[in-house]
Amino acid sequence: MIVWLRHGESTWNAVGRMQYDVLHPELTERGRAQAATAGALLADRGIAQVWASPAVRAQQTGEIVAGQLGLDLRTSPLLVEQSAEETGDDVADRVRRFADEFAGRGPVLAVSHGDTIAVAAALLADRRIGIIANTEWIETP
């Protein structure tokens, strides 16, 4: 199982600015608090590994959650937000490669981005989701 967690509120989220694949926006204090809350809520899920997109906002969220779970944070470029050069099929391919890597393993937490998580929900769980809020999560097989 993969638990897909959207990063906490970033400085750009706070002012309504789209981030796309820009990596540098950091978490706000609210985003850090959201990550801490998510970590507490995920504590009973038996998460075995925590992976995050290389974006700073995802890394910071992942560090907070992994710390609460007593795990190390790992980074995967497969979890990054869609770039202007990518198609939806490209993102689906990245999501599939990440999911295939962890098929049959214990629960894994993937800290990622709204659009990437929406693709994961559609591809892996046949679920259509709208906008996913900061630190909201979904589970896929």
From TrEMBL:
InterPro entries named in the record: His_Pase_superF_clade-1, His_PPase_superfam, PGM_Phosphatase
Pfam families referenced in this protein's UniProt entry, alphabetically: His_Phos_1
Binding positions (substrate): R6, H7, G8, E9, S10, T11, W12, N13, R57
Gene3D superfamilies hit by this protein: Phosphoglycerate mutase-like (3.40.50.1240)
GO CC annotation: cytoplasm
Sample GO molecular function, one term: phosphatase activity
UniProt protein name: Histidine phosphatase family protein
Source species of the chain: Aeromicrobium piscarium
Lineage: Bacteria, Bacillati, Actinomycetota, Actinomycetes, Propionibacteriales
